[in-house]
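Hi R.,

Here's the chain you asked about this morning:
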Amino acid sequence: MAASHRVVSAQTSESMRYLMRANATHGSAGLANIPGYYVGGKTGTADKIFHGHYSQDKVFTTFMAATPIDKPKYLYMVLYDEPQGLPEDGGYHTAAWNAGRVTGKLIERVEPLLGIAPVQEFPTQPFPIIAKLGFGFDADKVSKE
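And the predicted structure, written out as tokens:
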């Protein structure tokens, strides 16, 4: 195996993982926050360009999640080209409502197939570098306040 080298600092890596976890518990990645799996994720919605102009109703959506987010082992990526909003989702066609939801369903189905059982308790200090800086104590608070 080829030698590897770090391309981002440990602090940058942990900061990004903390933000992804907070997005799952407080933000747009909530539909992928599957109980028992320590998920972090990020949504992405981009207007498509037609003839040099941004479309008003056609988008690409992406969602990326990693588990367990404190020590990532698995990465999930879902991409949609021109998704349609569903009535039960208020007609929204953004990533949180389609790619995020599907990623959550993938995690819920795939992790048990990999032999990973849901856990009852998450790590007590999953982001130690962030904690030393006085942050990171709210990433697992499951609410959108």
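The first strand starts at residue 40 and ends at 50.

Let me know if you need anything else.
M.
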